[in-house]
């Protein structure tokens, strides 16, 4: 927004016709033309009033659109707080008109929020465009106290104030909500897998949300506002070339179809780049590559001043990327656990059962072109048939707004889906775990919101509404596929030694799990219906009290099953059953001796003897041969695990409240103080975790309850060139929901490798607390320069959590959990900040020189959900830099962009034997235009 003050001033000496040093370059050309027009006016003294009126109209017309949602384009010039243009008539023309003084002050987006009584950080789309910042993970680093976990976008978690760790698309709602153009996403994976362009603003609101509409969230909310259609013709495009064969094309175009009635806007991008590491085994694949395409088409209909309708359609076809969680290098496992034995000495690690020990077996040593030290531990990717992760999404939104009787009625109808299929699979060149593997998601959501808002300016401003949200995940899989080398890898030491002793045993070992394919499938269906209201009481011009309440009826249902999808080559080695799933195998003990079997089962046992030993029947086998059969069956049974038929989990049904109370006091036009209390509750979980003999085991999780307290101020100084927003906060969370690992005693017995086996699920941490200080600052008092700072100190800890699963280094004993009370939450840094400096200066007659520097810093944090001491990420800071020159009218601009200017190394260990490298420096060139 730009405010312009036009007034007639007393007659003064002529001033130079060059613009003021503090003139905002966006308005420079328009204001210069206005001044030249004014200098050419020849009017008499008696026409003073008429000409002043015309000048005011002319100045207003020269401004860019400022209404909410109006079409804008990237501004290559930083907003300045005080811009002045003086225009006067020629000195040869005596007149009483004197000078016309125009003062333009661009209001920063942060300043627009000065009366909002809560912690909000905001970044303008123009700032993101200057460094071609489009990736969601990178965008959120531009504000303080917000981060995304380091994994693939589908499984990534958004965290605010150190809280919010989740796990992919599933039963768990994100603690940090995400809204794009007023539409809430039920999973942040949708936003994390697309690039955001044509952005008007990006902001983060902290604390429980929901009393003003949309989907409720318990920790905070991220809002992305894109540019809407308008009736002013507009077109912009850019092309970026860079290292790693990067090419990024994006364009936005729009304008009137029918003046005053129908407008449109189209947005498109294509982003393609190779990853930083090439797979030595197949150089067609590189790791952390980019493959993203996106298109959005919007139409705006305005049949009257009181009725507007907007339709938005968007589509992201399936892209194919090998994302961050697959870019890792393996390390040798340490020789000792941190655990101690009865004599007080560290427990030794059985290296024969670590990855290096398993790959060192004779079976794998047959491959002479692959070695453990040179390849597996060699800081390179050398893996068999590694498929990519695949992401895609599409959706549509219909917004209808009607103003009547001093109110506005708004309807937002939206549909969105998300597709994900994981590549997963091999860790080496051997056919052990086959790709594609691990995960598959087909997600869809529908939402409908009706909101009634009063006209502002009275004693009470209010809004109220109804909200319906429904999401379904009919296909959510966790899978495992095994290959011809899997038996030799997963057998324990004794099993392997006996099976590898001769050809018969090797045949059994090969077939034991070759082509075996198991699948855990979830069918998830959730419905939320809410009513909400939010009121602002203006008791005086200075004192305003905001109150809000919301009630959300949550209904959540999950059905799960775990079955064998493909028996592979060794179906005859199945057990008779696994829990309530019949598998058709025969019964035998750990030595291979037959126990109770039917005639059909005995016939199957005889066929095993004939197939693998060419014996007449099972009774003809030697004890050693029977032991080999038992070993092969044990290897297979451990990979099959606990199966169960389709089981309905206990449903979660409850009405959850959200509330806010926020008094604010405006000391004067420059200073506002506020207090905020926010209460939010996130729905519990309907889920199956593990199984019993009767089938899947239901494990209902409780709702997460958040109470947040905040005191802050928002102030402007130095003639409004400096704006500061700061707050201190305390957040208490009961029954904090997060991914957990639960001891699986049955699987521990099946594995028989001396390690505790776990199954994953979602659970409640009794108590968590987060407290800290947040600061947002913008300053534009230096010529041609704008500075923005966003930072926070944060202390987020487990107050009460006595059952956190052991990290790997705490193995070697029979204790599965440890007390994590008092420890800092995973992924949480104590201090983080982002500093952005933007400099734009006119050069020559028609050009702008511009440069932009962004520095983001974080102190150390632990990246492991179990808080492994090996997984501490050291403090680091990353500098991004851009420099360029362009025409002042935006017809051409060229910039050199450098990401990670100083090639900072921020690599880390994800656990005690896995290393994750950082992204190296990247250099590119961007050329852009605006018509």
UniProtKB/TrEMBL annotation:
Annotated ranges, domain TonB-dependent receptor plug: 113-220
Cross-referenced PROSITE patterns: TONB_DEPENDENT_REC_3
Region spans: Disordered: 1-29, 61-92, 207-227
Bias-annotated ranges (Polar residues): 214-226
Domain of life: Bacteria
Predominant location: membrane
GO cellular component: cell outer membrane
Alphabetically ordered keywords of this record: Cell outer membrane, Coiled coil, Ion transport, Iron, Iron transport, Membrane, TonB box, Transmembrane, Transmembrane beta strand, Transport
Positions with biased composition (Low complexity): 8-22, 61-84
Stated name of the protein: Uncharacterized protein
